[in-house]
Amino acid sequence: QDNSFEQFIINYCNEKLQQIFIDLTLKEEQEEYIREGIEWTHIEYFNNAIICDLIENSQTGILAMLDEECLRPGTVTDDTFLEKLNQICAKHQHFESRMSKCSRFLSDTSLPHSCFRIQHYAGKVMYQVEGFVDKNNDLLYRDLSQAMWKATHSLIKTLFPEGNPDKINLKRPPTAGSQLKASVATLMKNLQTKNPNYIRCIKPNEKKAANVFNEALVCHQIRYLGLLENVRVRRAGYAFRQAYEPCLERYKMLCKQTWPHWNGPARAGVEVLFKELGIPEEEFSFGRSKIFIRNPRTLFRLEELRKQRLEELATLIAKIYRGWKCRTRFLLMKKSQIVISSWYRRYA
Question: Which segments carry the region annotation Actin-binding (predicted)?
Answer without folding.
Answer: 184-206
